[in-house]
């Protein structure tokens, strides 16, 4: 459950500034520089989990590895191989929006967004996640800091995250646009 919560929060953090008009459509790499959950540094733990996955994939047959890479790559996972990174494809529609995009849950809209120059401050109140943060846009790079309170089956958790997005180019290299992935998730039958 915590892995799912962390993944959902990463999607929120990375998606918080994607619709800022200065963001271009194309492939972006997101690196989580710092993630603290309930006072515990999760950054090293996440890097270790990613390294374990890479080790597991190295032991697969070439056919199995290709199949796994294709499955993960279409969702932006697998990134550039650096610890705590993943890639996301921003569609032209996402880049043209005039509000932050909260991925993963169509009911999640920012409750407040303030822009001043290259800074975007935002607040959100989504099912299970309440938070605020700020992003600073510098050309092809977006640095985001965010503080959240997450409520799940295990109770309430606090999380502080610092991440950086870097523009890699207009070709998404087979990664599906994030808005398309959200639509596909919403179309799946609920269990």
From TrEMBL:
Protein origin, superkingdom: Bacteria
Segment forming the signal sequence: 1-19
Region of interest (Disordered), ranges: 98-120
Keyword entries, A-Z: Signal
Short name of any one Pfam family annotated for the protein: DUF3617
UniProt-recorded name of the protein: DUF3617 domain-containing protein
Organism, scientific name: Zoogloea dura
